[in-house]
Design goal:
Number of strands: 11
Helix content: under 10%
Number of helices: 0
Order of helices and strands: EEEEEEEEEEE
Amino acid sequence: MKAFSVLALLVAVCGLCDYAYGTVVESCGDTRSVVPIEENVIDISDCAKGPCKLKRKTAVTINQKFTPTEDVKSLTTAVYAKIVGLPLPFIGVDGTSACQYLFAEDGETKVGCPLKADVPVVYKRSFDILEIYPKIPSMTIHWELQTKSGRSITCFEVPAKIV
């Protein structure tokens, strides 16, 4: 897989910052993703480049700006960690609706679903790294937004570890 340097979203807590930062992510390879990864703007908290260190008893925030190329009625997350080639879902995130985490391009105005083609949106989601998660020195996080029928709208992967 070819890694792409992805520009970042200006995070709301940044206030008057006049710079952007981002996270280097990889495309999902042979995915059916409609929005090419180069057209995404992704920021994972405290991670400019993988492997992202996911610290237990903390929350990780993902901000992803993308522009759907088609009308989308609803979106569901498909989020898992690939550990030694085995996909292990992130409980409480995988398989949940993404609609409540969708905002207008300003990152403040909730838009939810449905989405219109060619209208940029921002997906903002936090998830907890639970204390019960074991320390894992090497894994790949797969993050995908899918239609109800399982059609991929956007997808990225990033190396990570749980510390």
